[in-house]
Here is the input.
Amino acid sequence: MRGKSKLGNVYLVVVFLILYAPILYLMYYSFNSGGSMKDFEGFTFEWYGNVFEDTRLIIIALNTLVIALLSASIATIIGIFGALSIYYVKKMQTKNTLQTLNNVLIVSPDVIIGASFLIMFTIIGVKLGFTSVLLSHIAFSIPIVVIMVLPKLQEMSSSLIDAARDLGANNWEVLSKVILPYITPGIFAGFFMALTYSLDDFAVTFFVTGNGFSTLSVEIYSRARQGISLEINALSTLIFLVTIVLVIGYYFINQHNAKSSAQGVRKS
Here is the structure.
């Protein structure tokens, strides 16, 4: 057993090295005064200063953040009602079909989804830009929220709802005072996952963005094609750190919700 445990630990170390070594390499050279990723000549914050002095880049970063927050918020609201709809379907075959269709959207290649949105927006006459990107991000975020919220609904005992109805609660009170508080961890998980996916997305956004509007992922790709600049390293480092902060924030929120649930169980 000890041998298997050590082998598992070695495997995890190797996996994390493969995943994080390129990111750490990129972050390391973001402080290089030499202007290239060949020789580290000295430590500097010059490239970070260039990022914050680049007005176009700041506008694009704000566009990305607005798109992510709006799409995650709207997708979370729609996803909650989508999960509730699937949960309350009585026929098991229909429920399984809906869950399968939802999961298919998650595993579908981004290129296919992006091309599909591009064709649809072209046919219906939606101008490519902020609106098309926002709608696309909402659409691919909804299945993520559903898959996060639905398990919490399935964990919930039906006796809670029955007890609320016995006490005279109407449908809105059951939803707002029983169901939503119970599935709150799933809602937060869905929101943060949708937010992360939106910030990270490139393939879908690349298809549906238009002239005059861009997001950070598309902008980084465009600049990388023009040649290696350590300003890209600095920008990528900042995005990575923001993502880490979001993950840590979600972890602490999840821990707080878990402690609150445990305390509620003990009091009852």
